[in-house]
């Protein structure tokens, strides 16, 4: 009988394999088999491992040629010709971008193949096996034991594949082709002001799952009623229909049994008495357990309400001012993409030292450690997708790519109390196509998650008849919940010693966030405060800008650009930039610049009001 059930389970899982697998919710707390560590790699500038000499892909062909890297072919005898050998190849650390690991890969943009052998300790044929990537920049083609699991595009969001059908207890291998070439129709597009770090940039894990397991769930406080928790649970597996699920939050004396529908899905409401609400001042997290059949998953969740009222942002019904800073996902001292909890502690620790209760995670979804740590530290978050500058607005495939990344980050972080804002875009040129593109993204966001606020970093400009009066004229301002815009008066246009004379004329009854302002400075370069690249110039710009912004009646937050210097191929000015964007308040050596202390003082004085 068992053999028949096992066969049935294997058959069903094989059918599900063909479908794009939904991203596992909360893999963070699941028992993992980590594939982090040294992976062999082969640089493939001419795509030799993917195409034959007639430029036909080996991928998907009945009998892929001996040159198909994903088969990990070995010569059968001394006459055999195989022109690659992963096991003789050098290694890269995963997670980690290749640019910061290998000098010769510093500027590399192209395809690079990774290979990792693995066993599955305690392998059980009736279990299901998923392969999960925190992120790969930019395109990943994933193969296990020579079988194609799938292709994922998007450099900053998680994805996973079921590989049950293809793995065994020992001697497995995973091969990933990573291609980080930029392209006009991708998201982001060709032109960005950050380093195009390529590679398997976040954790890689295997999850051993029950035949029927808890694939996804959401649990939030109702945004209008703080005595109600709302959520849903989705199971995956052969016995999901009408399955029982138990939701337990011991501290709230909740232990509720629910019954799924025939699709293994249940949406539910749980009335609660007084909940200790999560906030920046009180980052209260509750232990949650969800169990069903042989699967059990734990999480830590904060319950809070985030709404707007006129020009105010209300956190749990109280007006909150967002004392923020922008952050790129880079451990600038080590070099390269940040990915670990240790990296997150450095970056959010610096933000906390600055006096922040808010952080803008620019310009793409950061690794999951940032939202998890922000939940614990009481730091509110703005998360965004890299719809940045001149996206290919007319291209529906480009829209689908943007929407997919949006869905993946919302799916991953929908249970994180710290995330209060989803941002659709950054500094995008206005047009009907762009408005349609962004409005569709906003609509999708509201359909997926109506518990958070929507914004986008727009742009301001001086009035034609009076350049001291700044305006924001953008139809997307009617769509967003919060009007955010980047302003660089004194750095890109305008004189730093005229900042005190400018003001904004914006007739809108919505909260406003100044989502960027700043100036470049080489740390340690002191001198005339009107001389660009001195710390004194950057500090003067902050000292002049902060009180000027404070006069904006709808101002509900600021996120100056940026916490730390970061690498950018657009910033090659010697001796000041040397490949870094220098608008950071902290240098790549971890030294604070003068303006760091000016902003810190400004936030400290805000707290006294
Ligand atoms: C822009 C952009 C940032 C960029 C910054 C700068 O506003 O949003 O990504 O780094 O300005 O020019 O330094």
Describe what this molecule looks like in 3D.
This protein has three domains: 176 residues, Sandwich (Jelly Rolls), CATH 2.60.120; 92 residues, Immunoglobulin-like; 239 residues, Glycosidases (TIM Barrel, Alpha-Beta Barrel). Helix 2 packs across helix 3. It is globular, with a radius of gyration of 25 Å. It has seven helices and 34 strands. The strands form eight sheets. A nine-stranded parallel sheet has the order 21-32-31-29-26-25-24-23-22. It has a six-stranded antiparallel sheet with strand order 3-2-4-9-6-7, with no helix packed on it. It has a four-stranded antiparallel sheet with strand order 1-10-5-8. Alpha-D-glucopyranuronic acid binds next to loops.
Supply the key terms.
TIM Barrel; 609 residues; binds alpha-D-glucopyranuronic acid; alpha/beta; Immunoglobulin-like
Provide the spatial order of strands within the biggest beta sheet: 21-32-31-29-26-25-24-23-22
Strand content: 25-35%
Query: How many individual domains?
Result: 3
Uncertain runs are 9-19
Instruction: Examine the secondary-structure arrangement and name the CATH architecture of the largest domain.
Output: Alpha-Beta Barrel
CATH superfamily of the largest domain: Glycosidases
Q: Which small-molecule ligands are present, each listed once?
A: alpha-D-glucopyranuronic acid
* Helix residue percentage: 10-25%
Q: How many beta-strand segments?
A: 34
- Helix/strand class: alpha/beta
Largest sheet: 9 strands, parallel
CATH class of the largest domain: Alpha Beta
- Kindly report the CATH topology of the largest domain: TIM Barrel
Arithmetic mean of pLDDT: 95
Radius of gyration: 25 Å
Q: Categorize the overall geometry.
A: globular
Instruction: Supply the number of helical segments.
Output: 7
What's the N-to-C terminus distance? 72 Å
